[in-house]
Batch of 3 targets.
Target 1
Amino acid sequence: MITVPQKVTNFAHIIRTRRRALELTQAELAQRIGTSTPYVGYLEAAKRHPSQRVLGKLAAALSLDLRELFLLANPRVAAIAAPPVNQGIHGTPWNAFLKDARLRRAHRITDREIETLSRVATMGEVRSPRDFVYVLNVIRIALGR
């Protein structure tokens, strides 16, 4: 499995570059991952975001590391998973999130959602209170809310 070079941070660029290095056409790659040729073009032009299924197939077809490809395709996740910024006197992002009633009201965050986010907070530190809103929105989308 080939890892993504550290200096390359653009998902679309790495897909196009790796496809060309393997001397594959967009049509050949599309056939290997079970999508259309235009869809591969959209991925390479950064006009579409791949599903988890497509990411897995791309990683396999292009012999790329799936974890690194996932982080390239989802840079916001990489930012959340990064080491926390110096917290200073304000405490952790979780504590700041809990204290920010205005933010919670603006996003209509329920007690049940707070409970779910508290579990997310135990997984590791995030960079800012707003990252909890991002995580919540991803959960809401996944649940069709």
Target 2
Amino acid sequence: MKAPGGRQAPLEMTGEEFRAAGHAVVDRLADFLATQSARPVAPSLSPGEVRALLGADGAPELGTAAGPLLEEAARLLLDNSTLSGHPRFLAYVVSSPSPIGALADLMAAIVNPNVGAWDLAPIATEIEAQSVRWIAEMLGYPSDCGGLLTSGGNMANFVGFLAARRARAPWDVRVEGAGPRGAGRLAVYTSAETHTWVHKAADLFGLGTGSIRWVSTDDAQRMDVDALRRQIREDRASGWLPMLVAATAGTVSTGAVDPLPRIAAVCREEGLWFHVDGAYGGFAAVVPGAPEDLRGLALADSVAVDPHKWLYAPLEAGCALVRDRELLRGAFEYRPIYYHLREEGETKDEAINYYQFGPQNSRGFRALKVWLGLRQAGQSGYRRMIADDIALARSLYAEVQRHPELEAFTLGLSVTTFRYVPAELAGNPSRDEEYLDRLNTEILTRLQRGGEVYLSNAVVRGRFLLRSCVVNFRTTAEDIAAVPEIVARVGRQVHQDLKGA
């Protein structure tokens, strides 16, 4: 297309060209939404077969018209993806994406604000700030906290970790690093059920994974608070410098919620930073009848949550909250001379520059999809959807308990764990547990390739289990009721195959 002034840019489109291509794409996507539940949850192709669909490896020398390209991309993506929005996607904590969120991402991409500085993104910055306040309010957290949206749970947890390192290290950690000579080593405390973000944080931010203290858990996979207290005191006696306790509100494997109020009390007594990874379970705090320990979110120095989990926003959207706004700024702010931007002031008319509150300078407009979702559903809508997900998990647990070939293990928030046990082995105290682990591993592989239902796995008390996690507003009671017999049918076939082998 020839732009004003005579320049021809291969990527430009006229308004009419964009409208025609956009309408075609939206029509295709609307048809996909209407038929998604009838599709396989995941493709059965191998990596090599998927790779071959893309054709030649060489970068194209000549361009192609946008219309055919978009049609090809839609076909490739819609026919060869694992569908997190499918009602029987019950595997990882990846939600069904809201349609309004998808449209929000299109809108944000067209305007393309850089939400690192207020001057570059005035309304986008204010929408993000309002979204952060609303999220804090939903969690019962102080709405005047510091906070920002991130790519996901890892980065949100990293933000809290870095704020803690800056605030609790007894030296200027930003100047001298995480372990200056003779200063002693910082220690981090978390449970054996914590997500692997803590490995990455200790590694990337200079403490080393040897600084992590893996606190034991109770029978419900929750952090043992007495063991935590003992470990802190033993470390102090050995010259370590306890810095942070990272508790979890909704563990990945079983949905367990650590005893947050009791952990908060230990942190107050010992002078440690109290961080909560609520990436999965934090938003369950809005649901009546949710675990009482979720009230402890309000006591944390920092909290990580993921709107792209239980707020059903499309990827990517995490959120970090830090109680003391200035401690958050102190972990990230630099003021290079080449930034000529209006600064935060003492008045209500201050400008927020998000590069001062997190690791990114250039930042996309993640908040629009979160903000629009919150406005479309309201807190009452989210309470209902999250409560429905939790109720469906309880229903699955009950169905599994009733099934003669399935063995239920745990139920936490919207996570159910169970396994297949052949009828002839049920109730046999001398059964081969290693065989059952191998059997259920192969069952999971076939389920994921089969397209009927997509589960994941957990290892609880040393046993390999099937795991269902409902964070999907499209999942129905009928979908849940179908799961046990699908698993049992596949289990019988796998058992026969393994016996034959």
Target 3
Amino acid sequence: MSMGRKIEFTISGEPVAQGRPRFSNRGGFVKAYDPAKSRNGKQHVRYAAKHAMEGEEPLEGPLHMRAEFGIMMPKSLARKRTPRSREYRVKKPDLDNLIKLVKDGCSGVVYLDDNTVVMVTARKIQCAQGEAPFTRVSFEQLEELNASLLDSS
């Protein structure tokens, strides 16, 4: 296994968060399924991931996932005359659910099992005025476990 391999790609469009599972009852059996928006979002991620992999073998763990989610500025703010730059997004969607959808969409393409993702670094921002929404992702193979992530002092 070659160490330190890295895959990076950007997905254009509004980031999609993993939705709560929906349930249907047919013939006395309860079935859980993905909401349509989540299903479509995963397909979009999977398409971008396949394009980025270009026939390469999936990465093997342990992996570090980095992600940046650029969410469209609300129209009410975009109409204001004073240009606004990027800022942290403290409203919906939830960062955990954004990460979950990308991990699910990349599973089986970038890596075989999302259990191999052992570290995640992510942020969600509100795009600057006039900036298009995006999701930027990278997965990198980790070589060895260094000192503790958090200091015990």
